[in-house]
Amino acid sequence: MKKGTFCILLMSGFSAMLGVSVISPFLPVFVRQHGANGFWLGMIFAGFGFSRGIIMPIVGRVSDKTGRKVFVASGLLLYTVISLFYPHADSVYALTIIRMIHGLAAGMIIPIIMAYVGDIAEKGKEGTSTGALNMSFYLGLAAGPLLGGILHEVSGFGAVFYFMAALGMAAFLVVFFFLPDDKRPSAEIPEGVTPFNILIKYNFIKAVLVITVTMTLMMAVFLSFLPSLASKINVDVNHIGMILSVGIFLAGILQVPFGRLSDRLDRIGKLLQIGTGMSVGMLALIAMPFCPDFTALLVSGALMGTGAAISMPALTNISVGIGHKVGMGSWMGIFYAAMSIGLVVTPLLSGIVMDHLGIESVFYVLAMLALFGGLGYLYYIRRRLKGYRQG
Length: 391
Fold this sequence. Notes:
Blueprint (H helix, E strand, L loop, with lengths): L2 H19 L5 H7 L4 H29 L2 H15 L8 H29 L5 H30 L1 H22 L16 H5 L3 H30 L4 H17 L1 H10 L2 H21 L6 H33 L1 H30 L1 H27 L6
Helix pairs in contact: 1-4, 1-5, 1-6, 1-7, 3-5, 3-14, 4-5, 4-7, 5-14, 6-7, 6-10, 6-11, 6-13, 9-10, 9-12, 9-13, 9-14, 9-15, 10-13, 11-13, 12-13, 12-15, 13-14, 14-15
């Protein structure tokens, strides 16, 4: 693998994910200022996931035929432009529209970068390579709340997003001038038949998609509604940013060692690694509404990040193997679209629950959904191990 190319992809991934979480610490304040309820708090996050989920399978499939670079560069340019509009959002409606356009930009970047890495990763080291890329994603997520809190404290709300725009422009210029294109299709895809229509027949694929949605569900409620939970027990914006950043930072820095572990495991071992990480994250989710103060929330957030670090490298390792068979861009588009389902459903459902039952109930309900997702994962894995192909 060319180190220069890989470093450019890591930087692009970091920049793209920074914008996902940078707004998290400010949402409770923003929503109170505009008199919005939990539903609109959910919509601000769901709009991002909705537009991202729609575009990802499309650009993924097209990139297998036309090349990857054009999508990464275009996404970064759109990301730069839309960042400039955040300081001018004067209502929850405007902020929701901005988040939807931001989701389109992310949808052009994230799955294509992963497909690019999947194409160039050395055989037998897929977990290490995708773990490093996941690390850049999570570090971007972690830096968002922390950096947002600091810049907001020093220079005000607008400075946060002007910095995002500057970082996005720098990443765009590097990609435009230095990232080589790769126009080699990673697999032959039958004309007129979408990979999803083929793949969804297999229990193994169903298990991968179910666990992907479930894990995203847990991380999404952590990012979008933990600030409201923390605000209720009088944790300030800067400390909320710290809770989010520590959890996601741990998820990031532990990706590579757990990626190396997944490279040494067979398929069953990888599946067990995924299940272990999901179980750790579920325990963290259940514990959060019982946390009485900042310290307890910090520990729960760290546990959530550790769970993601255990499971994600094995999940993306398996995904690279699938991508080599059906088209890397096509599969990564489907894989990340499944994540977007979690990003859409979780905030909307959480917002409704919050309005009717309170913020603590959000975490009880989502933990129950995560449990059902885990049981669905085990069901499909069990059928696969018994040799069934369909059903």
